[in-house]
Specification:
This protein has 534 residues and is mainly α. The protein has two domains: 399 residues, MFS general substrate transporter like domains (Growth Hormone, Chain: A), CATH 1.20.1250.20; 59 residues. It is built from 27 helices and three strands. A three-stranded antiparallel beta sheet has the order 2-1-3. α1 runs antiparallel to α6 and α12 packs across α13. It is globular and about 80 Å long. The two termini are 21 Å apart.
Length: 534
């Protein structure tokens, strides 16, 4: 096996955490409707079931990077895999709303893999391939998303079969437990495979274990380059002290202000544009367009396929076009896509017609006062339904009620959502984690990624938690218009501030982004340093 093949194999194993994350994150999109009925959840509780992992990720982000700096990337990744496994088992067998939230919170602690895996991969990859190698993690996230959407649809169809074995396995009335339980398989495999990878050579140098670092570098580098690469890493670390308080002061110092600003801008933009509302509520969003539950689950599969396809495109382009062009194009696409969704929902009308009442599994007598009335917004229609049949029945049968009354072009919403996903998958999805792994100095990378990752998780939690409330009180049109406005603002900031980082070694980037000229003239010039090792 060549050095490049070893890098690819190791990056693939480490990035399996991305697959487990993607599966864990998106499987809830098919579960939330079932647990809403199972446990009688309101909008806030729905939001908390979905966002509980991100709350866990917020806590993990605060310590994961520092822990990775203290104990090593490999050990922290192994702990993360074990947490995924515990969460999957706990979620599948959760007896109550509170138990489900707790199990998902534990899984959220494992979301630190989103920070640690790119960090590790960047530290073992050659500069010329670093963007592509780190993007394997994002590809696996997208594959995980797709796998969850396919699994949810397959299990939903299976649960409707009259076969005796379906009932004996509890799929007919508790299919959501099977949706959540499937995660046990990839989480277990990830945990086992992590015992077959080495520690990061850069971390070994920081820890003073140079002989081990040299051995690991020999696996990932041509034999005649090991010594030179080792000296390059040591030179970049020689002037730094490992004290925690020193690192904290440095993180918020003027020296790192430019790199930290870049991290915060990209980290906030990735979430505030609404991606996790789309991923985690995909069937619910499609139900808002009146296509019904089965079609909504089927359309969610399209989200997964688009994710994978455009992530592959991003991997092919990120080291050729660079990070900045992909971000500009992607954020522009997100703005256009969200504007299309906002227009589609804004133009919708809601008329409950008598000939379609038989499609609704509730007492139709209570709905008679609404028959023939025209509602100009989804908010007004949902409120009228809640007053007529009660909040619980209105939430439980929302998909059928919308399908029987909405007058709009659902293709606008489908095209808008898929355009959003494609734009995200080619830009903010892979590029953010590549940038996080590039822009911070070696000796403080873990702590810096923890900080910007925590901000990213906090914004993500807010988006997921508020989304059901926004749909109920602001309406789909206003909600998507807000996401589009944030994307437009993000385009302006990226054009104004972000430098290009492709092709430069991590040590060269440290000089460029923390030196006296950081933030000036860094608008994407082609790098002169084409060192092979990042």
């Amino acid at each position: 096996m060549t050095a490049a093949q070893r890098v690819l194999f190791t990056a693939t194993v480490v990035s399996l955490g991305g697959f487990v994350f993607g599966f864990d994150a998106s499987v809830i999109s098919g579960v939330v409707g079932f647990v809403t009925g199972e446990f009688g959840l309101n909008e806030w509780q729905q939001g908390f079931v979905v966002s509980a992992p991100t709350l866990g990720a917020l806590f993990a982000a605060a310590v994961a990077g520092t822990a990775a700096d203290a104990f090593g990337r490999r050990k922290i990744l192994q702990i993360i895999a074990f947490l995924y496994l515990i969460s999957a088992v706990g979620s599948a067998f959760a007896p109550s709303y509170e138990a489900l939230v707790l199990a998902r919170f534990i899984g959220g602690l494992a979301f630190a893999s989103l920070m640690i895996a790119p960090m590790y991969i960047a530290e073992i990859s050659p500069a010329a391939l670093r963007g592509k190698m780190v993007s394997i993690n994002q590809l696996n996230i997208m594959v995980g998303f797709s796998a969850a959407y396919f699994a949810n649809y397959f299990l939903l169809q299976l649960s409707g079969r009259p076969d005796a074995w379906v009932a004996s396995l509890g799929m007919d009335d508790a299919v959501w437990r099977w949706m959540l339980g499937l995660e046990i398989l990839p989480a277990g495999a990830y945990f086992v495979l992590l015992f077959f990878i080495p520690e990061s050579p850069r971390w070994l140098v920081v820890a003073g274990r140079e002989r081990e670092a040299e051995t690991v570098l020999a696996r990932f580098t041509a034999p005649d380059q090991v010594s030179a690469h080792l000296q390059t890493v040591k030179a970049g670390l020689s002037q730094h002290q490992p004290g925690l308080m020193d690192h904290l002061r440095e993180l918020f110092s003027k020296k790192l202000r430019f790199a930290l600003t870049i991290g915060l801008i990209v980290g906030i933009a990735q979430q505030i544009t609404g991606i996790n509302a789309i991923y985690f509520y995909a069937p619910s969003i499609f139900e808002q367009s009146g296509v019904g539950t089965d079609a909504a689950f089927a359309q969610a599969i399209c989200v997964g396929i688009i994710n994978v396809v455009f992530t592959l495109i991003a991997m092919a382009l990120i080291d050729k076009l660079g990070r900045k062009p992909l971000l500009i194009g992607g954020l522009t696409g997100i703005f256009v896509s969200m504007a299309l969704c906002a227009y589609g929902f804004g133009a919708a009308k809601f008329v409950l017609k008598p000939e379609r009442l038989h499609e609704i599994p509730v007492a139709t007598a209570a709905l008679q006062p609404l028959v023939g009335q025209t509602f100009d917004s989804d908010v007004a229609f949902k409120r009228a339904l809640a007053e007529a049949i009660g909040h619980e029945d209105a939430r439980r049968h929302q998909a059928a009620l919308l399908a029987a009354s909405i007058e709009m072009n659902p293709w606008l919403v489908l095209i808008g959502i898929l355009g959003f996903v494609a734009s995200f998958a080619i830009s903010l999805g892979p590029v953010m984690w590549v940038l996080f792994a590039e822009i911070f100095p070696n000796h403080i990378r873990g702590m810096a990624i923890s900080f910007v990752g925590a901000i990213n998780s906090l914004v993500s939690f807010a988006v997921q938690f508020l989304f059901p409330w926004e749909l109920a009180n602001l309406g789909a049109a206003v909600t998507f218009a807000l996401y589009g406005a944030f994307a437009l603002f993000g385009v302006v900031l990226v054009i104004w501030i972000l430098p290009e980082t492709k092709g430069k070694s991590l040590e060269q980037l440290e000089q460029d982004l923390t030196g006296p000229h950081a933030g000036r003239g860094g608008s994407g010039r082609e790098p002169q340093d084409q060192a092979l090792v990042a």
